[in-house]
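ok so i was messing around last nite and threw this chain in just to see what happens. nothing serious, just curious
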Amino acid sequence: MAAQAVPERVERIVIENCSIATVDADDTEYASGHVVVAGNRIESVGAGRAPDGLENVVRRIDGTGHLVTPGLINTHHHFYQWITRGLATDHNLFDWLVALYPTWARIDEPMVRAAAQGSLAMMARGGVTTAMDHHYVYPRGSGDLTGAIIGAARETGVRFTLARGSMDRSEKDGGLPPDFAVETLEGALAGTEAAIDAHHDASFDAMTQIAVAPCSPFSVSTELMRQGAELARRRGVRLHTHGSETVEEEKFCHELFGMGPTDYFESTGWLGDDVWMAHCVHMNDSDIAAFARTGTGVAHCPSSNARLAAGIARVPDMLAAGVPVGLGVDGTASNESGELHTELRNALLVNRLGPHREGALNARQALRLGTYGGAQVLGRAEQIGSLEPGKLADLVMWKLDTLAHASIADPVTALVLGAAAPVTLSLVNGKPVVEGNRLITVDEDALARATRDEARRLAQIAAGA
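result:
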């Protein structure tokens, strides 16, 4: 990592007397240590008190009773679904999509902005410092949905990747979405490149990045997959899509393409160290080996996979093979809570129901999935995901001295397996986003009313369609 020199007059924040889990390559931890933030960078991390003689310290925080970790990183989400939560709660994936696409096809810019604000706020107040949205529903005449989502992320203050999605296979072509909810091949590619032109920042401390993200094999033509991959590599951005989520998807791929999802992805240029896939539940040994060989990443979404009865992803086997794995909330229409702490806990618990049992994952591995693993799959492991000098100052102070956590012996276990811990402070790029378990960038009460109103408006429009 190329750490840059700290400017001489930069302002510093000092956090002391806290437990620290750095999630660095050695899993270094301190029972009582310090973190010094200089501008938007981590300047030092270590045991005991901060170094003497620091200049321009604008804030000194006593972290007694807290655990400091890297900020959580969400690697798969669909923000627009925030306003369709609680529907089709007993469906598998394909039935759930068929039930909800007619409603989703009627979203517009105000709805998407409110839904993005709600999704981002829920994640940020729960310790997420880097968010991601895979938005792929662009109904005709719906307004500037890309701009609405990116604007919401900027207002919330989190680091953000928009995976600009697309669909061009509608019902008339054997897909699931209604005809008026999909784009043409040319329109999808043009819209994606326009998003890159307008919003992608390739700098070290970028707050907004764009990825190319056709939705899934069953809603996208092969030509869009191929040309999407070519576009991403020509523009130097990452690639994202859904993969191997259900047994029905595998059957669909064999029937339509004569091969399974992983072989299909490879045939269209969609394996590589610049690619990450959501879910990857139904992967055989050969599939996992292909991901490991190519460096293709995985966004593991345990709550959504359970909610839709998709199955248990082979995360321990992927990690053993060297596959980069992060965590994803997934859309809140298949994960009503919408925050990432649930995924830390469920990743550990659900994987212990699989063949590896108690040896599947431990608390520190779960935390790594939600931090450094997420940075890997988003292509930002040199900048975020661990607490190390020179990295960006994205970190969270978790309060662990309350009734819910005080008697749990180990702070990392308390964070992962305990109740959702209050966030005393969350910094993104060295700036506070959460203070005292409350967002300081967003009026949560006003936002709750706005998202409720947009959910009602969408339901009324869908009912009258």
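not much to say yet. The radius of gyration is 21 Å.
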